[in-house]
Design brief:
Elements lengths: L1 E8 L10 H18 L4 E7 L2 E10 L2 H18 L4 E8 L10 E6 L2 E6 L6 H4 L7
Helix pairs in contact: 1-2
């Protein structure tokens, strides 16, 4: 099973003082990227208190196909809006190197890097009583 949950606060710059028209255009580009990727079960792109945010989540029986496309989409959002920040948590029980742990992709200033998860890993015994490798 492949599980993923993520969020991004979309910003044009790290100053957080973005031109409203520019931000509108960036949000439209992010919307198109999400639509074109067609990989996300749950997707919510909306404005809250004048700021755009993106939420992603879902499950897939075979992460090998969705995983790379999901990460590509997450990275693309950072490329489109270089001031953006957020987290994408992924657990792929078919990943032979990380099958008992969540991985976290951190976006800061639009750049994405991978980190181990200290909160829900190892999956067994932290989240599940038993887990067969």
């Amino acid at each position: 099973m492949f599980e993923y949950h993520g969020w991004v606060t979309i910003q044009a710059t790290a100053s957080g003082d973005d031109d409203a028209a520019l931000l509108e255009r960036l949000v439209e580009r992010v919307h198109r990227a999400v639509h074109d990727a067609d990989v996300v079960d749950l997707v919510d792109l909306r404005w809250s208190a004048g700021l755009p945010m993106l939420h992603l989540g879902g499950f897939d029986k075979h992460g090998g196909t969705i995983g790379p496309r999901l990460l590509e989409l997450f990275t693309r959002v950072g490329e489109l809006a270089a001031g953006s920040y957020g987290l994408l948590h992924v657990w792929d029980d078919q990943d032979t190197e990380h099958d008992n742990e969540f991985r976290v992709y951190r976006m800061a200033r639009g750049l994405v890097n991978e980190r181990p998860d200290p909160h829900l890993s190892p999956v067994a015994p932290t989240v599940l009583d038993l887990y067969e490798l």
